[in-house]
Amino acid sequence: MIVILYLGLCLLCCYWGRNTFAGPVGFFLLSLMLTPFVGLLILIFAHKKDTTHSQDT
Hints:
Layout: H1 2-16, H2 23-34, H3 36-45
Helix pairs in contact: 1-2, 1-3, 2-3
């Protein structure tokens, strides 16, 4: 039961980190190795990727 909760929190970090510098896989592995709580702390201070693109028409 604890393992399922741990992996669920890692997947939550993965979902929330999808638009950051490490991406979803990076945050999943980070939270898997360091604990999901440390992953969430890093996620709070992580910079988001710039998703705006300038179009020259």
